[in-house]
Write a structure and sequence with these properties.
By secondary structure, this protein is an alpha+beta fold. Helix content is 24%, strand content 20%.
């Protein structure tokens, strides 16, 4: 039987793994596989067995105690930065590099995502070298294999749900009120408002617990109700459907006798070693996958551009109480607002009508001071958050190259359109919010020319160049290597890219000829 190796455990890698398992393959996953520290994991597992009303204040404070965090754009889970990658001696960045977010975690960056998904408007990806009908098939396959909740609404014509499911989280007064205000107070043909679409369990299954509405979704889901790829990885391991090796940093791929030699460093022993595979599916994340291909092709001092997406965070005030009843609620984004800017491209806004990050501002909410808690909770019922992203064409990007000393050099490159575009969109969305009787708290509005979403460093192309891939993710010189993460997406639309990564990985792992 052919030996198939998958590199990485993020959403692309695990989606491809599931597709290969369906084809009767038992692949080997090579992964760095960092996990949260032991003490926090023990507390999380303890609290998971309890009703959230029975959590002790001491355990709660220990679990969610925050590490130092220099950027408000850098989300933490259980107060930890564990799922963000660091500069390693065996995989170094140059000293002056501006390093984007990346991960060495078991589950990749999905360890810290919010589970938000949305299908694309195919008009915005019509230049992708893939067939729309074929890709839609894999969107449907992917979503129907996940705990996907959605509602048919005003978004559905442009952004189809690709499922017969028509259910969502418990509808709150806040969700209905904000949706209705945004829709009814703005008579705009380029504005769509509807329910969010989430990978979140609303029913128990054999492995995981449904959402308990405990109010800590943004800070970390104790009950594992929000999907991440580590959950599927552990199920595959439990069912003996895969082999798995962690503490691995893959450095280089080499063609030898129609096979692929995978050179790597074992972080436990610090030994440089290698194995052979007939096929390799590379999903180490956009930065590390690109780095591996640079090194494998001896592309030193050759530039690769990594795209990103600009973002705006709007703190909002509602004169009318949203009646959130925190913490007895889900705090994932509950509303999507799609606004077409200049009739050119969609902006994507996720609205959280309840957001547990306010706990960081008002830590006494969970104190024993009931009088103070009462007034703080009343005040919080008037605040909510909107997070807007734009597409990669109008955002800054990173330029990367690998030097001869194995240092990855990364520099942020300014896109002349970014700041003007973000400012214009900010002003136009402020009008929409104002028309809806929601006031933006202007001094607290945050803009960033980049975001957590990065990719397109080795985009798919019909006629790929040296730094591009074909439609099955094959980089130059490697017919038996298939890249399956965001690095091969030709562009990054404003909408969440997680679903695009998964559907594309499913397509590649399903359709490639494993016998070549």
């Amino acid at each position: 039987m052919k030996k198939i190796v998958i590199i990485g455990s993020g959403i692309g890698s695990i989606t491809a793994t599931k597709a290969l398992v369906k084809r009767g393959i038992k692949p080997l996953i090579l992964d760095t596989g960092n996990i949260i520290d032991k003490d926090k994991l023990e507390i999380k597992n303890k609290l998971k067995k309890l009703n959230y009303n029975d959590w002790s204040k001491n355990d709660y404070n220990k679990l969610f105690k925050k590490e130092k965090n220099k950027s408000i754009f850098k989300k933490q889970i259980f107060g930890s930065n564990y799922f963000y990658g660091k500069n390693l001696k065996v995989n170094k960045f140059s000293d002056n590099s501006e390093i984007p977010f990346f991960s060495y975690a078991k589950g990749g960056l999905s360890e810290g995502w919010g589970g938000a998904v949305l299908s694309p408007d195919f008009e915005e990806i019509k230049d992708w070298p893939i067939d729309k009908g074929n890709f839609e098939k894999y969107l449907e396959i992917t979503l129907n294999d996940l705990p996907y909740i959605t509602k048919t609404d005003d978004l559905s014509n442009i952004f189809p749900t690709y499922t017969n499911n028509n259910f969502n989280l418990k509808k709150s007064f806040a969700t209905n009120f904000v949706i209705n205000e945004l829709k009814n107070k703005n008579n705009l043909t380029n504005l769509l408002v509807g329910n969010s679409r989430l990978l979140t369990r609303i029913n128990d299954d054999s492995n995981f617990i449904k959402c308990q509405y405990c109010g800590r979704c943004i800070s970390g889901c104790v009950y594992d109700s929000i999907y991440n790829s580590k959950q599927d990885l552990e199920k595959l391991l439990e069912n003996n459907q895969i082999n798995y090796s962690d503490n691995i940093i893959v450095k280089k791929l080499i063609n030898e006798n129609n096979r692929i030699k995978i050179e790597f460093i074992d972080l436990k022993s610090n030994i440089y070693s290698s194995i052979y595979a007939d096929k390799v599916f590379l999903g180490a994340g956009s930065i590390n996958s690109t780095r591996i291909i640079m090194n494998s092709n001896n592309y030193f001092n050759k530039n690769y551009d990594l795209k990103s997406k600009g973002q705006i965070i709007f703190p909002l005030f509602s004169r009318k109480s949203l009646l959130n009843n925190w913490p007895h609620t889900n705090t994932q984004p509950d509303i999507y607002m799609e606004y077409k800017y200049n009739d050119e491209f969609w902006t994507h806004t996720q609205i959280n009508t309840s957001n547990d990050l306010f706990i960081n501002i008002f830590p006494s909410i969970i104190s024993q001071n009931k009088i103070f808690d009462y007034f703080i909770k009343k005040l919080m019922n008037h605040f909510f958050v909107a997070h807007t992203t734009i597409n990669s064409f109008n955002s800054d990007y990173y330029r990367m190259f690998l030097d001869h000393n194995d240092n990855l050099n990364i520099k942020l490159i300014n896109n002349n359109k970014t700041l003007k575009t973000l400012n214009n969109i900010q002003n136009e969305l402020k009008v929409i919010f104002k028309n809806s009787n929601f006031r933006t708290i202007n001094p607290l509005i945050l803009k960033n020319n980049i975001s957590l979403h990065n990719g397109s460093s080795m985009p798919m192309s019909i006629n790929p160049k040296d730094n591009e891939t074909n439609i099955y993710g094959n980089p130059k010189n490697f017919k038996n290597v298939h890249i399956i993460d965001s690095s091969i997406l030709p562009s990054l639309p404003a909408t969440p890219i997680g679903l695009l990564i998964m559907a594309n990985a499913s397509r590649i792992a399903t359709e490639v000829n494993l016998n070549e």
